[in-house]
Amino acid sequence: xxNFQFLSTLFLGFLLxxxxxxxxxxxxxxxxxxxxxxxxxxxxxxxxAQLDSADSMNVTMKGKxxxxxxxxxxxxxxxxxxxASDGEIFVQFFDYGFFxxxxxxxxxxxxxxxxxxxxxxxxxxxxxxxDEGQSEEEIAAITEPLFEKKxxxxxxxxxx
Length: 160
Known about the structure:
- By secondary structure, the protein is an alpha+beta fold.
- It is built from 4 helices and 7 strands, in the order αββαββββααβ.
- The N and C termini lie far apart (54 Å).
């Protein structure tokens, strides 16, 4: 009986170890499913402009990380690395299957997934502002929903 309990405990411990995944470290800079063809990445500016007329598109895109959720890395804002565009795209990660390092701001990344436009409610905007560490006054000043450009990433690769 003791052997069975020991083996059961050992097996459960092994399952726990195997099922836990790192949320903030990646030795190779690849997160989620990765990017299938980084060389095919289109510019931030091109995707941002296409979302003015398209509801959504599956795409691989290159951008610069402006900010990352400081709670657990569950979202990030991307901007144009060249500075030619002043827009931003809000990025989340498919099924919350992976998260980004909180200190990734300023890095260039290639992301793969679905770009789309969607209204973000006041409640969501306030939640994201809180995640970003904004003051109570800044959060209270958010009173209108925002129709914004978004991206649901299946994979991210940090450009070295």
